[in-house]
Amino acid sequence: MNKRIILTASFFGFIAVLLGAFGAHALKALVDGPSLEIWQKGVNYQFYHTFAMLYLSTFARYRNKLINIAYFCFTFGIILFSGSLYLLATRNILQLDFVNLIGPLTPIGGLLFVLGWIMLFFAAIKDK
After folding, report:
1. Cβ contact 82:43 at 8 Å
2. In the chain, where are the structural domains located?
3. CA nearest to 40, candidates 25, 54, 55, 51
4. What DSSP state is assigned to residue 82?
């Protein structure tokens, strides 16, 4: 098991639980339905890729470069994809005027997720 990957996944899991609870309880009184759906999508994808990172930690003992790349793709994918969705969902509360700059971060984060899964695929093929 790779301690760095497990610590990162634990942190993201902890944050996802907090943000999910915040969205379900406090945020729903502050934003409209579509914004709440955007928030929830960010939480869901953060959880999916947190679990993917935990799975990555089982491969890490092989010192495979593909696992390292997948780790960074999932990490920055969570930050860009979920992070941008959180900002987009709360843009009215936060009074963000730079939404045009935030919007493109979401597909970049999504692309990183895809690349992370591809790296995991090839790492599994390479595994003996």
Report:
1. yes
2. 3-126
3. 25
4. I
